[in-house]
Amino acid sequence: HGEPKAAPKGEPQAERKTEPNTEATLEPKAEQKVEPKVESETDPKAAAKGEQPAKEQGAEASLKAEPKVEVKAEATAEPKAEAKVAKVSSTGKQITSGGSHIGPQQWGIMPAQMKELLYDMKLVDTIDEKTNARKFVEEYIKPRYKSGRSVAVTFNDASPKTIDVMISHCWDEPVGTFLQHVLMVTEDRIDVGVFICFLSVYQGTPKEVDIQVTQGSVDAKSGCFAQVLSTVKQQGGQMIVISNNAVMDQGLYSRLWCVWEVFCAIKDDVPIQLHPLTGTDQHLFGKAGKNRFDPRVARCGNPSLPPSSDEVRIKAAIAAEAGWVNVRDAITMACKYTTMFNYMISTSGCMLGPCCVKALFQAVESMPQVTKLAFLDNGINESGVEALAEMLKQNNTLSVLDLRNNNITDRGAQALAEMLKQNKTLRALYLNGNNITDRGAQALRDVQNSWKRKWFRNRHIDIFGI
Predict the structure, then answer these.
(1) What does the pLDDT read at residue 229?
(2) CB-based contact 130:157 (threshold 8 Å)
(3) CA–CA gap between residue 232 and residue 102 (Å, rounded)
(4) Which of 9-13, 221-225, 304-308, 457-461 has the lowest mean pLDDT?
(5) How far is residue 457 from each of residues 168, 240, 449, 463, measured CA to CA in Å?
């Protein structure tokens, strides 16, 4: 069987059947054998390749020729599939336009580039704030990034970005909300390289993705995520865990990849930060809670299907490395104490009135280490936001203010616009889910536009939700 495979890959299959013949008879033989060989060759070749049999029982003889065409196409398509893997290298490295092979350690994306992605998403009709990462990959990333380079590597093709921060998450959260959550905890570090799997890994064929994730190794300890966390450790960085409301029934750690990532971070002594908006027990461990958390039941992919090769590799690595009890204890302990390092105060869902908002802000003023303040889902109206805006005029510590899902109208937007003319430190303002019309939005945009003049060229703020 080795000799036919050694024949030139571009030759027709008939050549493999006519080795005794001369070159002068090869082409006529190929033309004559196409139809007669259909019935005799289709079934065994398809069976050998694991392909589907003829289309339907009782079909016309002319339809039976279709499997022959498919067999020929696949016989010549195999080298092309290998070429696709080769463009991300046989060991899972991505290849820059200059020909450099770069590993996961340099698949970073910077906060400013994530902002560009957020702005560009608004121009795509099929993408909105509810689009999750899976749909985003299929409808946005794959049609635009086909070169073998991921979103992150495409942005940094000339100078690949080393990873400082790894984001551990699952793909269920709306991608716009997810990126805003990432920016909330990274954007004050302008030059940081961030690893986000669906942006850092080239989203090609399943084979191309798999070779990048495994890095050509059957051992999960040598794979992409373990390598990234090792680099984060060397860089003095951290892993940030971002859960989401869509997984609160089962918890983020019902996902085996997330278990593996936090396990690797603990093993390598990488600092772990829980996102302050999604770091509750239910976000991480589901309704069953932390005390009943069992990482052994975590799954990769659809839990109704048999275990995938990823799942088998990860579970074997965990069982051999530390044992499930130790992994469970380490994860629950890490998730208990990391919140003290989050320099953000969140009052999500507390329904604070103007007096409470003012009292809390006065307390924040005495804590300069707090740089992010979240007032989500608090029913804050004009009087509340006006009080807040007045205090923010003189504040010089906050860089992020999250006012999503309140009752802020154009009047409140105008108060915030006036505040921004004096505040010098805010870099991000989140206003999604309020009652701001074009009039209020324009007042905020006018302030942004005024900073584009020469003497304000170093002043910038991102305003989301207008």
Answers:
(1) 94
(2) no
(3) 16
(4) 9-13
(5) 34, 31, 10, 17
> Residue 374 — φ and ψ, nearest 5°?
-120, 125
Residue 332's alpha-carbon distances to 187, 244, 248, 324, 371, in angstroms, are 28, 18, 16, 12, 27
Task: Measure the CA–CA gap between 255 and 284, rounded to whole angstroms.
Answer: 10
Contact 377, 277 (CB under 8 A): no
Q: Which of 415, 435, 412, 433 is nearest to 423 (CA)?
A: 415
Q: What is the 3-state secondary structure (H, E, C) of the chain?
A: CHHHHHCCCCCCCHHHHCCCCCHHHHHHHHHHHCCHHHHHHHHHHHHHHCCCCCCCCCCCCCCCHHHHHHHHHHHHHHHHHHHHHHCCCCCCCEECCCCCEECHHHCCECHHHHHHHHHHHCCCCCCCCCCEHHHHHHHHHHHHCCCCCCHHHHHCCCCCCCCCEEEECCCCCEHHHHHHHHHHHHCCCCCCCEECHHHHCCCCCHHHHHHHHHCCCCCHHHCHHHHHHHHHHHHCCEEEECCCHHHCCCCHHHEHHHHHHHHHHHHCCCCEEECCCCCCHHHHHCCCCHHHCCHHHCECCCCCCCCCHHHHHHHHHHHHHCCHHHHHHHHHHHHHHHHHHCCEEECCCCCCCHHHHHHHHHHHHCCCCCCEEECCCCCCCHHHHHHHHHHHCCCCCCCEEECCCCCCCHHHHHHHHHHHCCCCCCCEEECCCCCCCHHHHHHHHHHHHHCCCHHHCCCCCEEECC
pLDDT at 355: 65
| Lowest mean per-residue pLDDT among 230-239, 369-378, 432-441 | 369-378
Q: Which residues pair with 102 in a beta bridge?
A: 94
What's the number of CA atoms in the CB half-sphere (13 Å) around residue 64?
Answer: 15
Q: Tell me the Ramachandran region of residue 59: left when phi exceeds 0, alpha when psi lies from -120 to 50, beta otherwise.
A: beta
Separation between Cα atoms, residue 45 and residue 22, nearest integer Å: 25
* Confidence (pLDDT) at 378: 74
The answer, yes or no, to whether residue 458 has pLDDT greater than 60, is: no
Q: Give the pLDDT score at 336.
A: 67
At 79-126, the pLDDT tens digits run 343 344 557 999 999 999 999 999 999 999 999 999 899 888 877 777
Mind listing the pLDDT tens digit for each residue in 164-192?
999 999 988 889 889 988 988 887 677 89
Residue pair 126/136 in contact by the 8 Å Cβ criterion: no
C-alpha–C-alpha distance, residues 93 and 148, integer Å: 10
Question: Residue 434's closest CA among 419, 450, 418, 414?
Answer: 414
